[in-house]
């Protein structure tokens, strides 16, 4: 993934990475907006990513939480209903059997 | 010999191994970046990924995504303050919720597969009971569950994509 390469200016390492298409598009927009070369842009972006790592991680956590909350509530509600149905069946069955009711 | 080395490339039969297949599927629909950057930044990057326990390809991609995030300084400051007060609590809640959702999902999958027979039994028990006493007469939500509702639950828990 990382290969060393001697340049005229300084020692450089090739970053070889695959990114999602939307990230790639943002990267191209960044290059155009900042009128910079790919190497400088990627260095700045990576530094920025490391600097704000916990903030971005927190943002992701928040959106993950918002995504899973309704799923959790639906699963919990369904589970309670299934369990109540199962319990009611066993209570009714026991009552009918105990009292020998047909 | 590294324990994983035999999985690295093609197997003796020439078929692709599972790690190559997984890596290829991860790269599918992705764009390839191959860019030289300063060794100093790469050293910082390696140390950072190691410290956070992230692997190189996915961790680097994640950091590029984070680094391209376009919040203003003001928005970042708001996020920073919010994070200080809520991060640990939210992290705990999120982990518990994910675990419980998965647990409910597995249990619901089994119960949904038995749902038709449970409903049939319930309706028959209530009918038998209704003939002899009104002591346990209840109106429950599942009394009105139609085939449509059962299909909806089957789609949710059994035939999920």
Runs of chain A with pLDDT <50, length 5+? none
Q: Which strands sit side by side, in order, in the main sheet of chain A? A: 1-2
Cα-based radius of gyration of chain B, to the nearest Å: 27 Å
User: Please, how many domains of chain B?
Assistant: 3
Question: Based on CA inertia axes, which overall geometry of chain B fits?
Answer: elongated
Topology:
The complex is a heterodimer of chains A (102) and B (161).
Chain A: E1 2-6, E2 11-20, H1 21-34, H2 38-51, H3 53-98
Antiparallel strand pairs in A: 1-2
Chain B: H1 5-8, H2 18-27, E1 30-38, H3 39-52, H4 56-67, H5 73-113, H6 115-132, H7 147-157
Helix pairs in contact in B: 5-7
How does this model look, in words?
The complex is a heterodimer of chains A (102) and B (161). Chain A contains three helices and two strands, in the order ββααα. Chain A is an alpha+beta fold. Chain A is rod-shaped and about 90 Å long. Chain B is 68% helix and 6% strand. Chain B has seven helices and one strand. Chain B has helices at 5-8, 18-27, 39-52, 56-67, 73-113, 115-132, 147-157; one strand at 30-38. In chain B, α5 packs across α7. The longest helix of chain B is centred in the middle third of the chain and has 41 residues, at 73-113. Chain B starts with a helix and ends with a helix. The model of chain B is unreliable at 1-10 (pLDDT under 50). At the A-B interface, β1, β2, α1, α2 and α3 of A face β1, α3, α4, α5 and α6 of B.
